[in-house]
Fold each of these.
Amino acid sequence: MTVPLPEMTSPPPRTTVPLPDFPAGFVWGVSTSAYQIEGATSQDGRGASIWDRFAHTPGTVVDGSTGDTACDHYHRYAEDVALLAGLGVDAYRFSVAWPRIQPDGTGQANSDGLAFYDRLVDSLLARGVDPVATLFHWDLPQALEDKGGWLARDTAGRFADYAALVAGRLGDRVALWLTLNEPFVHMSYGYGLGTHAPGQTRFFDAFPVAHHQLLGHGLAVAALRAATGGPVGITNNYSPVRVLGDTDADHLARAAYHALHNRLFTDPLLGRGYPEIPGADATVVHPGDLDTIAAPIDVLGVNYYNPTGVRAPSDPDSPLPFDLVPLDGYPTTSFGWPVDPEGLRELLTGLRAEYGDRLPPIQITEGGCSYDDTIDEQGRCHDPERVAYLDGHLRALHRAIVDGVDVRGYYVWSLLDNFEWAEGYTKRFGLVHVDFDTQVRTPKTSYGWYRDQIAATGTLE
Ligand code: BGC
Ligand code: BGC
Ligand code: BGC
């Protein structure tokens, strides 16, 4: 099938100063995830996921929408691969929907599910784009949730079985495997605060979800090593913590939030065991688990969006040892998230300082921003704020590399505007605008900017 390269209709950015040179072999990419783009949620034997169940529950998603159709990528993947080829990216990070592979989360693979990713991977390779596969981006089979989800230890073993099935089929062609996407967000929003699927509000009683995800990661690393020679990693999200206030209680709040967001999923991965988490039920950690979790990885995926402001809880009965507070003095995205490129450098140099030689090479597996992008009368989509956001963050990243942090790639979130979880279709993160009524894709100004930067960026030898 031939698909024409996308026509670049959006205006060019005002001239920007070319980016500095990045290390030889630096990977330029973009990211997406299955539930956010694929649609076709009941086609070809796909089972239900917790996100199907959650989004179909009234009151969970701000605009009442679901991922039933999303970007219809399941049917339009060839057009989307052409968009990737037009960008000139080295790599495309997508996620595999577990319920397409195992509709009930266990047992034999659904061959139609595997066939979809097989076609996707082959069409990427035909266009010279390396496939980077995330195995879990929050869409747990509902049947496993009914048996306890990530609160149940058994889910870790099921995850490793699923990883083996996918690697058995795609292991000869995937350039990088990432086990989990942002287990912190899945634990805290999904099982702690209830704003994401599966919608549970357990606060610190969600700790088993952290441990079982990490155990699943470790078991999946072993399964992937057995099935493929490809490099293996995990994606965490990190946020530098800014404390507002200067009391001892404020500093304790900072340390507590830092432990939860930045250390809980990294200390054990890098062989240090868990940080102190008050209220965490340590009995879920069995002998040998920490060794399984600390299996060597080739890449640490780092997602960065924004720093987080905290101070001591104002309510002494608060279930959390900190209050999250807005950070003043930064421009914000349409999500209200503060834009702080220096935070990226800070977190990278912080990881290096904290973990030293234990730190594997890093790839920035997500970075990006949402703005209220619209199509103008000429049919164009001009998003200068996104160009500025990416430009600033790539320069900050470059400074971190010059500071000695081993960072080998950057993936923009996202290729397409898509289903932004609890925000539905109200937040647009794409380099490509999607009209969700017609599925028309329009490359934004930022798409042309990123394409030109990738083409122009030299390499440091
Ligand atoms: C950040 C979190 C923050 C949340 C809400 C996420 O992108 O990573 O640190 O608490 O947004 O602002
Ligand atoms: C997630 C994406 C999400 C993005 C923007 C990341 O936390 O991995 O799925 O769309 O943030 O919120
Ligand atoms: C948003 C999610 C997002 C998460 C992590 C939340 O505030 O509702 O859509 O994925 O932050 O960045």
Amino acid sequence: MKDLKQLLEQNRAWAERIKASDPEFFRTLAKQQSPKFLWIGCSDSRVPSTQLVGMAPGEMFVHRNVANVVVHTDFNCLSVIQYAVDGLDVDHIIVCGHHGCGGVKAAMDNVQFGLIDNWLRHVQDVMHVHKDELAQIRDESERVDRLCELNVIEQVVNVSRTTIVQNAWERGQELVVHGWIYNLQDGLLRDLGITVDSAESLAPAYRRALPGLRRTLTGSLVQ
Ligand code: CO
């Protein structure tokens, strides 16, 4: 209970600090939120979305799960995307993975942890698509880090192919999907070079991000 007491004390100190610099901050924010960004990231405690981009409450809508996976049947994630796009009219969706991701490593190692193994099957699907590139990386931690990056790129594709995002583009809404990776070693974010701002730009953006992979977006390998 001591730990929880400390959390509540820290919360009071945090709220006091904000109120000291802006007495109206909470009252204004309580009325509405208008974030311009949706962050889809990993649940890992070392990757605190708003904190690492220096954002205040109200500036970023957030969804986090193990290994930042976007699955077309996950109504939790889809609901977040739908409300962010249709309700909040965000301008950007950022899928952010991180190097050394435990979920990605577990998927690669194919070890059993329980229920979560089924969730991580999605990361294994990514691994199978990119098995040739991954097989060329000898160092194990480098191979995990590359799968972390490839997983982000594939999740950007999944976000872009949701009916929610497709319909937003169809009606002319400005919406850009990005893929980023966070380095736990230096605290820095890096853009993975897949930026999608329309249905038509998805396939070229995917090819640019993965020049070595000759794969169509329907999943089949092409000549
Ligand atoms: Co992770």
